[in-house]
Design brief:
Elements (H helix, E strand, L loop, with lengths): L1 E3 L5 E3 L8 H4 L2 H20 L1 H28 L7 H29 L2 H32 L2 H24 L9
Antiparallel strand pairs: 1-2
Helix pairs in contact: 2-3, 2-4, 3-4, 3-6, 4-5, 5-6
């Protein structure tokens, strides 16, 4: 929400009528965890890298859209009008991350041999756990700075890089490992 200071400049301020984050925050992780097996099942049918590619593209678009909605809400006189769209986009992000998690773990079983699977699964789980720690930290810092949309745009860049890496190593012609 924007507020004018004494000298007439506009600054962002917290919305005193905003819904409680604690009321809604559980929905995203719940949806992501619930839908994870679907990611593995779809990947068994069409291929883990293909699912990962599609999901990465969805996450790029959803992150950009979420950042844009956040920016619109911050600059609106009535930011509450953006809440349901924001919540929907965040649920899309969590659902996509759950499906992507399932497709990634399915791909590990296809790409690596018996001796490598265990260590790679462990390393991947550790990286995923770190992501679950760092993403809220980045978001919290950007919220404190008054620019949470920048976190979403940064996440979009990260997902775009993941999309390119997935294509390069698994989907392009002459890829290192063919893992459709």
């Amino acid at each position: 929400m924007m507020e004018a200071t004494a000298d007439g400049t506009l600054i962002r301020v917290a919305n005193p009528e905003a819904p409680s984050a604690l009321t809604w925050a559980w929905i995203g992780p719940f949806v992501g965890a619930l839908i994870r097996p679907l990611g593995g099942w779809i990947s068994d049918k069409v291929g883990g890298s293909i699912v990962t590619q599609i999901i990465s593209a969805v996450m790029v678009v959803a992150s950009i859209a979420t950042g844009y909605v956040m920016m619109q809400a911050y600059n609106a006189t009535d930011p509450n009008q953006f809440f349901w769209l924001f919540l929907l986009l965040f649920i899309v992000l969590f659902a996509a991350s759950g499906i992507g998690n399932g497709s990634t773990f399915r791909s590990i079983g296809v790409i690596f041999d018996q001796q490598q699977k265990g260590p790679v699964l462990g390393w991947t789980s550790a990286v995923a756990a770190y992501g679950a720690f760092i993403a809220p930290r980045v978001m919290g810092e950007q919220i404190q700075a008054g620019t949470p949309e920048l976190a979403m745009y940064g996440f979009a860049v990260f997902y775009a890089i993941c999309l390119v890496i997935n294509w390069w190593f698994y989907l392009r012609k002459g890829a290192y490992v063919k893992n459709p």
